[in-house]
Specification:
By secondary structure, the chain is α+β, with helices and mostly antiparallel strands. It contains six helices and 17 strands. The chain folds into two domains: 109 residues, Rieske [2Fe-2S] iron-sulphur domain (Rieske Iron-sulfur Protein, 3-layer Sandwich), CATH 2.102.10; 224 residues, Alpha-Beta Complex (Naphthalene 1,2-dioxygenase Alpha Subunit, Chain A, domain 1). Helix content is 20%, strand content 33%. Helix 1 packs across helix 5 and helix 1 packs across helix 6. The mean pLDDT is 93. It binds FE2/S2 (inorganic) cluster and fe (ii) ion.
Length: 355
Amino acid sequence: MYPLETGSFAPRNHWYVAAWSSEITRSPIERILLGDSVVFFRTTDGAVAALAGICPHRGFPLAKGELIADEIECPYHGLRFRADGACTLVPSQKVVPGACRLRTYPVTERWQWVWIWMGDPELADEALIPDHFEAKLTDPEFRCAGGNYFDVPGRYVLLHDNLLDLNHVPFLHKGTFGGDGGGAIQIPEVTSGENWISCTFTQPAIDCPPFLVELLSYSGLVSRKYVSYFYAPCLHVILDSISALDAETGEAKPLGALLHIHAVTPATERSSHYFQGEGQNFSHTEPCLSKAFRSSEMVKAALEEDVSAAIEIEKSIELTNGTLPEILLLADKAAVLGRRMIQGLINQEKTAVRG
Ligand code: FES
Ligand SMILES: [Fe+2]
């Protein structure tokens, strides 16, 4: 499916962000991940349980049920399931049918979110989760806060395209994140390796965007450099360094850096989950600046601009019967590489299955 090859959706043998840790409580929730319904809850010892979310009896969504100690009870006819997927009770009969069990998904908590493995559980190696310290999320130099979530009616690759294409910042985010439309971003420098892409975008000289004036207590000319790191197929971390620029000498003096944290997880073929947070390496005071910034109206408005781009393009794809004609520009290099990388991961899995 666009922009991937026909018959390709998403690679499964990878870790994806399923939820914010704070979302998983003693009240079950359902999330559709890579086309599967998954029900999440916490057992009494605080562990996250992730099970197939559709009751194997007659298909009722288990998340509408309730927990009896560490078991989830289907509200339709009362079948109960443990966190390991075993059915422990069929109220209408003594014998539990052998086939009556739920698939379980490997999960683990890192930083502020829950990661899930949607593929072959035998291959679920936690060492494959991106290193959160290296990504700066747990680096003490930065204060990071998560919590933003969008249920996006648009295919996940559109969100990756957006995050690998910061050339949209001065335009789509005119007046919010990107400043007032000035200072088009230069063609990115792109490097890549196994399952990662790094790209550097710069705005050499712009007026300090209004939200940064407030955060950095500085107004005047700045240079802005974004180093974006994509840990395929889910996580993006963008280091956004801002320097005060002396217009006469061209000297740049660092003011601080923001960290824009994004995770994208496919829901269905045409919808996605988008998790977002913010960090900063200055003003390490309470209350946490990142927390206030992450939940600020400005950040939410900017994210809604990105989400609306995915929604609008999804509509265009639908109108053009799933094949969107495109003229790709030099500035699309990183996004194109991201698409190829995701396609490569899908193809590897197809080859492994055939092998
Ligand atoms: S559908 Fe769940 S118990 Fe019948
Ligand atoms: Fe954006």
